[in-house]
Design brief:
Layout: E1 2-7, E2 17-22, E3 29-32, E4 42-45, H1 63-71, E5 73-76, E6 81-87, E7 91-94, E8 97-103, E9 107-110, E10 115-122, E11 124-127, E12 130-143, E13 148-160, E14 165-172, H2 173-176
Parallel strand pairs: 5-7, 6-8, 7-9, 8-10, 9-11, 10-12, 11-12, 12-13, 13-14
Antiparallel strand pairs: 1-2, 3-4
Length: 178
């Protein structure tokens, strides 16, 4: 940005000379001289404006939803054994040992150290450890390179990494309907 100051001193050829000054060089108050010498000079105040610091966008949290999601997640840690029936779990993470029947559960993750023995009918599963029993995965079944699955297995889509194993009665859900 530049401010222009007109020099009222007239030369012999009656021209007005302009001087261009960067705004950063102006401090406080500047007097502007108008080209007509009969008019009174006007005073212009110049102040430096610092742009406001942008405030970071904060997404409001829905504590009710957070609490709801947290209560439907079950993690069985390393060294823990769990036997029984597990119901209404959105996500089950197994790093220990579980012998159970899953009812109304959404997804299961068996880590490298985890083992699961039992029955599950779920939406998705990721197996890096050992799974033994009846497993029905309506959408994606992912068997990692360290994963071992044995038993009766039904799946929507099957993904097996190099090194992963699957043994038993294995069928696609689409082919088992025919």
């Amino acid at each position: 940005m530049f401010a222009r100051e007109k020099d009222a001193k007239q030369k012999s050829d009656n021209r007005i000379h302009e001087t261009v000054t960067p705004l950063s060089d102006l401090s406080g108050t500047t007097t502007a001289v108008l080209p007509n010498p009969t008019e009174k000079p006007a005073t212009i105040s110049v102040s430096r404006v610092t742009p406001p610091t942008p405030t970071p966008m904060v997404t409001p949290r829905d504590n009710k939803n957070d609490a709801k999601n947290e209560t439907k997640r079950l993690t069985v840690g390393r060294g823990i054994s769990l036997n029984g029936k597990i119901s209404f779990c959105d996500r089950l993470v197994i790093d220990g040992k579980v012998e159970a029947e899953l009812e109304d559960c959404h997804t299961v993750e068996v880590t490298e150290n985890g083992t699961f023995k039992g029955a599950a009918e779920i939406t998705g599963a990721e197996i890096s450890g050992h799974y033994d029993g009846s497993l029905t995965v309506r959408e994606n079944l992912l068997i990692r390179s360290t994963g071992r699955v044995s038993g009766t297995v039904r799946y929507g889509k099957l993904h097996i990494e190099d090194g992963g194993e699957i043994n038993g009665d294995v069928k696609s859900i689409s082919s088992s309907k025919t």
